[in-house]
Design goal:
alpha+beta; two-stranded parallel ribbon; 21% helix
Length: 48
C-alpha cells in the first residue's frame, strides 16, 4: 500500500452511516488513504 497523505485537519459532516446511499466503502477508502493531525466529526454521523 502507498504511504498515507499527511493532512492537517479533516472535517466530516452529514455522513448518515446506516442509510442506503451513505458511501461507507468510499469513506473507508478515503480515511485509509490519509493521515490527519485532527479528525473532526461534525454531526449526523449515524442514521439508524
Amino acid at each position: 500500500m502507498a504511504s498515507k497523505r499527511s493532512v492537517d485537519i479533516v472535517v466530516l459532516s452529514d455522513l448518515h452511516l446506516g442509510t442506503v446511499g451513505c458511501h461507507a466503502i468510499e469513506l473507508t477508502r478515503y480515511l485509509n488513504s490519509i493521515a490527519p493531525d485532527k479528525l473532526i466529526l461534525n454531526g449526523d454521523i449515524f442514521d439508524i
